[in-house]
Design brief:
Elements: H1 20-49, H2 53-63, H3 66-93, H4 100-126
Length: about 130
């Protein structure tokens, strides 16, 4: 006698409602990937900026290109989110915030703190 299987054949990611803790986890992975992918360009800019005054001016001009400024804003978000969410994940390694209510609270704290710091640093650095 065969057992009926009610599991779906495919996963519809649009219909799934993730909790806020799931979003923190996914964004943590995305921010880590973005930071990793930015390493070659960052090393390139560091290399040309250390070649003297002309190289430094070239690096500064490169950073003034609008698309590069947008990339820098995205990288700023990546750094902030990865740092703050990483602290949250380190706390879970010490068994702090494992219950559902605490985990949800800490996830919201991550997003709120990240938004405040992101807005403040974006205004301070780019405007």
């Amino acid at each position: 006698m065969a057992v009926s299987d009610n599991r779906p054949f495919f996963l519809n990611l649009v219909k799934i409602r993730l909790p806020v803790t799931g979003f923190v986890s996914i964004f943590h992975r995305i921010s880590g990937l973005l930071l990793f992918l930015a390493i070659p360009f960052s090393v390139y800019l560091l290399d040309i900026s250390l070649q003297g005054e002309a190289g430094f001016n070239e690096a500064a001009e490169t950073l003034n290109i609008p698309i590069i400024k947008l990339a820098c804003v995205i990288l700023l978000w990546s750094i902030l989110h990865h740092l703050i969410a990483g602290i949250r994940f380190l706390l879970t390694d010490f068994d702090i915030g494992l219950e559902k209510q605490q985990a949800t609270l800490y996830a919201w704290i991550v997003f709120i703190l990240e938004a405040i710091l992101f807005i403040w640093l974006t205004v301070k650095v780019f405007l």
